[in-house]
Amino acid sequence: MSPTIEFAIEHGDITLFDADVVALKYALKFHGADREVAFALDQVGIALEELCPTVGDYSYVETHGGIRARHALFVGVPSLSQFGYREIREFVVRVLNILSDVAPTTKHLAMTIHGPGYGLDEVEALLVQFEGYLQVIHGGGFALDLEYITIVDKNHDRVQRLRIALEKNLSNVGYASRVESRWAYRLTTPQRSIHAGRDSTLYATDIEMAGVESELKPHVFVAMPFKKDMEDVFYYGIQGPAHAIGFLCERVDQETFTGDILDRVKKRIETAAVVIAELSSANPNVYLEVGYAWGKGRPVILLVRSVKELCFDVRGQRCLTYELIKDLEKSLTKELNELKSKQLI
């Protein structure tokens, strides 16, 4: 029988989080959290070269106090442009299988969320990661003494959104129950395999098919500045309406526009059901993405706080203007529903 494991999503710094193992990806170079951990380990004498496994390989090291966790696992994966929803799920399965071999006494595993930093839908990314855990825990042959899995994220608002999304998806399943003392779920062995037919009660949510069907789901690509004061615009004014019609919602931090990330942006624009562009502040990268979307014949919805902020080359185009985020949510929901009803997206 599979073990009972507590799964949590916590606000914090992965370098300061107490766990037996921190598991990270190495996508041909360092990014985000894996960069922070690697550089912290480098400060205590662990050479960066030791933390750069080739694709399919891994590096498991003692941290010697460089970070709070006792061990770090770096798993080699393809470049970010090739690291989509399915690959996140496969990565998590690989992490657990590696630990079963090299560190079977691991009791607490800490990881970060993968995907939102380079453009993937944060909720879908969470679901595929969670399903990776389920696949191993419920699949039989689980060789770890694991008791806790924690996803750690520095962004407090993201932690709250991910918790809400997971609560929604776990509300009617039999293998998860809330822990009373803290925000966590106790995962237990289900009565039926997670690969049972679609009529199984385990398919009460989208979790079990996350990663399998993610790439087939229609998606919105959002072109907008990555600024703190625009976060609520994206997550509540844009992402909410997109999710409401069953679309994934993706964007890319333009500060990461190098090489494979730019390739990912182009591919996701080309395959988007619709591109939504927030033109306030006249960000040049946003205008570049709009031009690329038009060139590829993708439907584009333009948003702006004031028409006075528009550059001359789009002033003749129809724009949805807004002052309050709730107004944007309302008008964009209406626009998306109309386009969908006309089968334009």
Automatic annotation (TrEMBL):
Domain of life: Archaea
Gene3D superfamilies referenced in this protein's UniProt entry, alphabetically: 3.40.50.450
Cited SUPFAM superfamilies: N-(deoxy)ribosyltransferase-like
Protein name: Uncharacterized protein
Lineage of origin: Archaea, Methanobacteriati, Methanobacteriota, Stenosarchaea group, Methanomicrobia
